[in-house]
C-alpha cells in the first residue's frame, strides 16, 4: 500500500465525521447507529441525505455548505477517496456532514425505515458487462434495499454520463410505475442545470473534458417497495450476443 494511502487511512481514524463499521458490525446485523444517526451522531432531528458511491464527497460537502438545515452522509467503500471530503468537512468545522465507509450492499444494516430523506447517486459505474447488470446501483435489488429506509415520498437523484445507465434506470422507473419528477439527457447543453445540479464531482469533470453530456433523473418509489426487472433492449442485446455497449 502506498504511503499516501496509509497516511489517509490513519487520518480518517482521527476524523469524527468518518464512521467505519467493521464487517462483523454490518453483515446480517444492525449497525449501532441504525435508527440513531440524528440522536447519537448529529445531535439534531434534521433530514438526512445520502450520497452513494460518493468518491471524494463533492456533493456531500457542497450540499452540506448550501443546506445547513440538513444532514449529509457520503457513502463509499474507498477510504482514501472519501478522506478528501472528510478532511474538508473537518477543516471547515462542518457539523452536518459525515462519511460512512462501507459497501453499499450493507447499507440497510445502517439505516432504519424512514430514516433517510433523499438519496444522490453520483456517477456510479454503469456496469456494462453482461454479468454485472445486477450490480448497478439502480438495479431492482438495490432499489428494494433503498426503499427499506427512504422515507415515504423521498426522492432518488441519479447523475451520470452513461446514457446506457440513464436509459436503463428511466426504463425501470417507468416499467415499475415510479413517479419521475425530473429527467434530462444533457443538463448543461439544455440549461437544465441549476446551482445544485451544477456541483461537479471528480468523475464528472473528467467526463465533461471528454465532451460527454451529463444526464439527470429524479424519481421516487410511490407506494412500491419491491421492483420488477423490466426488459431493456440494449441489455437484451448485451446478454444474447455479449456485444460491447456504449457508456
Ligand atoms: C465512478 S466512482 C464516482 C465517484 C464520485 N461519485 C464522483 O462522481 O467522482 C464510483 C464510486 O463508487 C464507489 N463504489 C462502487 N461500488 C460500491 C459499493 N458497492 N459500495 C460502496 N462504494 C462503492 C467506488 O469506490 C467509487 O468511489
TrEMBL record:
Q: What UniProt keywords are attached to this protein's entry?
A: Methyltransferase, S-adenosyl-L-methionine, Transferase, tRNA processing
Q: Name the positions where substrate binds.
A: 161, 201-204
- GO terms of molecular function: tRNA (guanine(46)-N7)-methyltransferase activity
Give the EC number. 2.1.1.33
Q: Does the keyword Plastid apply?
A: no
What's a Pfam family this protein contains? Methyltransf_4
Pathway(s) where this gene product acts? tRNA modification; N(7)-methylguanine-tRNA biosynthesis
Q: What is the top EC class of this enzyme, as a single word?
A: transferase
Q: Is this entry keyworded Endoplasmic reticulum? A: no
Domain of life according to the entry: Bacteria
Binding locations of S-adenosyl-L-methionine: 51, 76, 125
Recorded catalytic reaction(s): these are: guanosine(46) in tRNA + S-adenosyl-L-methionine = N(7)-methylguanosine(46) in tRNA + S-adenosyl-L-homocysteine
UniProt-listed PANTHER family:
3-DEOXY-D-MANNO-OCTULOSONIC-ACID TRANSFERASE/TRNA GUANINE-N 7 - -METHYLTRANSFERASE (PTHR23417), PENTACOTRIPEPTIDE-REPEAT REGION OF PRORP DOMAIN-CONTAINING PROTEIN (PTHR23417:SF14)
Q: What does this protein do?
A: Catalyzes the formation of N(7)-methylguanine at position 46 (m7G46) in tRNA.
Q: Which family does it belong to?
A: Belongs to the class I-like SAM-binding methyltransferase superfamily. TrmB family.
Spell out the protein name for this chain: tRNA (guanine-N(7)-)-methyltransferase
Amino acid at each position: 500500500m502506498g504511503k499516501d494511502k496509509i497516511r489517509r487511512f490513519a487520518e480518517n481514524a482521527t476524523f469524527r465525521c468518518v464512521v467505519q463499521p467493521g464487517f462483523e458490525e454490518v453483515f446480517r446485523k444492525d449497525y449501532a447507529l441504525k435508527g440513531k444517526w440524528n440522536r447519537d451522531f448529529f445531535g439534531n432531528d434534521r433530514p438526512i441525505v445520502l450520497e452513494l458511491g460518493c468518491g471524494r464527497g463533492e456533493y456531500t460537502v457542497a450540499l452540506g455548505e448550501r443546506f445547513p438545515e440538513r444532514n449529509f452522509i457520503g457513502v463509499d467503500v474507498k477510504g482514501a477517496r472519501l478522506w478528501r471530503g472528510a478532511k474538508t468537512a473537518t477543516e471547515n468545522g462542518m457539523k452536518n456532514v459525515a462519511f460512512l465507509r462501507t459497501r453499499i450492499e450493507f447499507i440497510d444494516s445502517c439505516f432504519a425505515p424512514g430514516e433517510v430523506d433523499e438519496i444522490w447517486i453520483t456517477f456510479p459505474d454503469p456496469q456494462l458487462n453482461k454479468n454485472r447488470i445486477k450490480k448497478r446501483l439502480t438495479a431492482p435489488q438495490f432499489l428494494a434495499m433503498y426503499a427499506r429506509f427512504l422515507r415515504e415520498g423521498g426522492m432518488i437523484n441519479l447523475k451520470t454520463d452513461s446514457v446506457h445507465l440513464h436509459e436503463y434506470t428511466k426504463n425501470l422507473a417507468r416499467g415499475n410505475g415510479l413517479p419521475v419528477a425530473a429527467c434530462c439527457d444533457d443538463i448543461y447543453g439544455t440549461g437544465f442545470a441549476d446551482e445544485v445540479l451544477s456541483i461537479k464531482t471528480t468523475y464528472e469533470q473528467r467526463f465533461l473534458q471528454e465532451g460527454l453530456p451529463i444526464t439527470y433523473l429524479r424519481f421516487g418509489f410511490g407506494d412500491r417497495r419491491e421492483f420488477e426487472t423490466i426488459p431493456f433492449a440494449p441489455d437484451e442485446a448485451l446478454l444474447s450476443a455479449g456485444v460491447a455497449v456504449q457508456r
